[in-house]
Amino acid sequence: MADQVSSVPVFSQTITDFWREQFLNGDVLYSDEAFTVVKNPALDEDSRVMVLETSDGRVMAVLTPALADKIGLSQQQSLSESTFRQKLNEAGVTLHGADYLFYFSKADKNVLLQENLEGELRRLTEQDDTVFSAFRSSASEQDLYDAYVELDHWAVFGSFEENRLVSAASMYPWEEDAQIADLGVLTLTSYRGKGHARKVVRSICKYAYGQGYEPQYRCQLDNHASTALAKAAGFTLFGKWEVISPDSTD
Question: DSSP state, 79?
Answer without folding.
Answer: -
